[in-house]
Structure to design on (344 residues):
């Protein structure tokens, strides 16, 4: 037994912001946590991930999946991004936990066609199912984030910390 | 637009049970979803993972992490296991979503020493921090599970479906 170490949360700097942003920009998938309708229990599943033109995380999800129905009932959710991959201790790989609100993109929304094109350019395998009636594009609006860069390297972040450099403040 | 396809949930068979069990036995880490104290919002983070002698998922987590404090306040949680890794579509890789209750192992619990030894044998890097005062061993007792083996291959499972072959029913 040793004494309890101090809190590992560090002041947010540009290096941490750039790491968080890189995790969002390169994520091919994420763990999505939702609240199960009725019970309110947490549930976590894997979803594909890309970004919209403002740098927000975006997915294409099916109503046949429980997570989609959960988000339709309650948009409060969380995402975990950052692929450990390879060998070594998975806890040394950086990852980003986002607290989000899910925002479904209506079929007739003005920017939907552009978003669909962008998504399919970034995730071409989704062409197989993108136009099935049960699939929906959904944006995830971050409320705040926790970045973990490995043991003892942790930051609490605002949504603004995650905005792309040069991005428009109102969009995030 | 095409018609809505039928539910992809299949009847659970021994092949699905074996796949779920293999995902638990080989998981080096998991996404852990918890309920944030106060707000009740979902939050999701990465934890290391191993198993106990009964095949239950086990982790070693720090009170300095928000997920640990959340589980101390409310043990209802969820785990996502199954590493996509490599290239190709991450959604074609099998993964298991577990609905769980977290069960902290008391420092003076009779089986703690054996569990600690097993954990450190399976996850030797954890020796660096296993005996820090803020770290706790925690078992995750599955209540039910959803197995996704790739598009159109999904199963809903009971805790009993996840029990190791030859395992004791009362332990799971």
């Amino acid at each position: 037994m040793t004494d309890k170490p101090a809190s590992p949360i560090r002041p947010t700097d540009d290096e941490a912001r750039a790491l968080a942003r890189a995790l969002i920009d390169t994520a091919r998938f994420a763990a999505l946590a939702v609240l199960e309708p009725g019970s309110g229990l947490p549930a976590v599943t894997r979803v594909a991930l890309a970004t919209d033109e403002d740098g927000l995380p975006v997915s294409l999800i099916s109503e046949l999946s429980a997570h989609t129905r959960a988000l339709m009932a309650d948009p409060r959710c969380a995402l975990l991004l950052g692929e450990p991959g390879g060998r070594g201790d998975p806890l040394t790989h950086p990852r980003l936990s986002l607290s989000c609100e899910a925002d479904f993109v209506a079929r007739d929304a003005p920017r939907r066609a552009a978003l669909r094109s962008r998504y399919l350019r970034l995730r071409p395998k989704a062409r197989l199912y993108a136009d099935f009636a049960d699939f929906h594009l959904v944006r995830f609006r971050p409320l705040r984030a926790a970045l973990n860069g490995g043991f003892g390297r942790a930051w609490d972040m605002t949504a603004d910390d995650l905005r792309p450099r040069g991005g428009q403040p109102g969009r995030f």
User: Anything to note?
Assistant: Strands of chain B lie at 9-10, 29-35, 42-48, 50-51, 57-62, 76-81, 95-104, 135-148, 154-158.
